[in-house]
Amino acid sequence: MSKKNAIYRLTIKGFKSIKNLDGLELDNLNVLLGANGAGKSSFVSYFRMLGEMMEQRLKKWTTQQGSADRIVSFGVKETQKIESFVKFGLNGYQFELEPTVEGGFVFSNERLFFDGPQFGAEWVPLGSGHQEAKLKEAFDSKKFQAPYKNDVVAYCYESISSWKVFHFHDTSDMASVKRFGPAHINDYLRPDASNLAAYLYRLTTETPDVYEQIRKTIQLAIPFFDDFVLKPRRLDTEEELINLQWRQNDSDYVFWPSQLSDGSIRFMCLVTALLQPDPPSTIIIDEPELGLHPYAITLLGSLLRSASTRMQVIVSTQSVPLVNEFSINDLIIVEREKGATVFKRLDEDEFETWLDDYSVGELWEKNILGGRPRK
């Protein structure tokens, strides 16, 4: 049985603009909908922090953010700690982070939760006073000798570390997705798709049916696209490099990735992420519609809905065409109240009369659903 579980309920307090999010329930498909500055990016950033914590890189991530003062809600004078509890399957992970005078964080609490039929609800403490999360250390060392506690550690670490934030906004000439990279870095698709060519090359040999599905889906939005040309180049050091070359219909000429539009590359990245054969248990994507043609956005909506049957999908957007591809029950409205971010789920039954005349996107545009700028 898989030890990678999706998120069931989430509590975040004191993190960036999220001052008090208490027990938000997440479904298979979750669409964060709100105006610029509402706090959607704070929600996504929380999962980036969690991912860094799992690999014991919280200190580095905090430094990159500026300091703990820029991460806690409204600064350290108003917020003394970040608190969070995330529930998944029968397990949960709770932590509290307190800012230090040096600008970093220290764990004042880190513990695991298990609520099983055999042992009942129980907490497994990981300690306090440390600067990096101990969950990975516990997973690597198998320090808990009781079998069920080993299982709790494994389920918690493998679940949380499998939640992936994807971000395909960088399509500049220096973006890694356009450059040559090692052909052997292909075990999974990187969050910025920097190894897209290597990953696709692996799919051509290991799961050719999935590769063909990716190719045909790309063709729906980019009709002139025929196929990728994925040929590793061997160096004198025996290392193989590969890049994202391609060709168009009715031509043998091989194009370079720089000869694709930014929107085309982003769509290729999105299709690959959403059709990958061994997906994360949860995938988080921030504003995937950026730079896409309206028809590609419609296709993206279908891909997101389909992907949510194989993995949990969390996506943030402010695109009316994309919102039209979902039901009201899929939406989480994100707004600011008294300066802090709040999250609200809606009941589609309450908008039944409106839906007779308007699409979901139109209701959002008219601010019937909320999540629009307020004067």
TrEMBL record:
Q: Which InterPro entries match?
A: ATPase_AAA_core, P-loop_NTPase, RecF-like
Q: Which parts of the sequence belong to the ATPase AAA-type core domain?
A: 29-322
Q: Organism's domain of life?
A: Bacteria
Positions of transmembrane segments: none
The name this protein carries in UniProt is: AAA family ATPase
Instruction: Specify the species.
Output: Pseudomonas agronomica
